[in-house]
Structure prediction request, 327 residues.
Amino acid sequence: MTDTELPKSEAHRRTPTQDATEIDVAAVSDVVDNVIANVETVMVGHHDAIEHILTALLGRGHVLLEDVPGVGKTMLARAVATSFDGTFKRVQFTPDLLPSDVTGVNVFNQQTQEFEFRPGPIFANVVLGDEINRAPPKTQSALLEAMEEEQATVDGETHEMPDPFTVIATQNTVEGDRAYDLPMAEVDRFMKKLHLGYPDEDDEVDMLGRVVGRHPIEELEAVISLGDLRMARAATADVTVETPVREYATRLVSYTREHAQLGVSPRGNIDLLRAAQARAVLDSREYVIPDDVQAEAQHVLAHRIRTSGERDGGEVVSEALERVPVE
Prediction:
């Protein structure tokens, strides 16, 4: 049995010294299935949301989880992060949080008579920004450089983020008078915006049976190494996107620009195709088809659109998917 034919139970044991070209998309799909199964021991009834987070991870993107309090946004982010054998940091955003509390600060060392950089919690493989809209815009902006360029500048000195680096942020949709709106420049840096919603009754009963007593998150273990994740990302980036698919994605994006006050940016178009590449990987395909683009469009594009009427971004995307032809 070759390495790329390993069963799901052994897929996560690959050594991080392998070249990404040695792992085909079918093997990456098996690894992703491992992670999904692991997260679902904690999260009930959110299979689609877990898939969307993992496609964002494979596509080198960031995720914004928005919903009412108590539906499991933070727990989902923790479960996904714990499934990877990397560093995980959580930042609780509050009105008094300072940018240096996120990025870090230079501290004078009296013994060496030099300033030393003490990295903030943003220097981790997976960063959970909890209730990101609680912090003022100045503090929120501390994430911008890191999310786009995978680096942070403190006192004029640039520090690289670890590889891989992903931000999973949450925000509540209630108590708007006690929160700040995220600036469009920051919203646009999130590949996807997801809503969890309430579970149905059967899923909620199942969830209650799991969490009464010890919570399953306490026993969750990593099922994939950082080396595996890097290789999975590299394999995803190599998925073929032919010209007709690129043209179709561009026509969708152009439709949003023509039918909204603010349409999707070129960055959003890039994120759409990267998410489509990851969707192809989940289906064990080495090439993107229009169905992949359509499956990802709503979650990648809608939050980047601003309208002047009663319609929201999701309606504009739905119209685009219905009216823009696949050629």
Q: What stands out?
A: The radius of gyration is 20 Å. Residues 1-21 have pLDDT under 50 and may be disordered. The CA atoms of residues 254 and 263 lie 8 Å apart. The first strand starts at residue 63 and ends at 67.
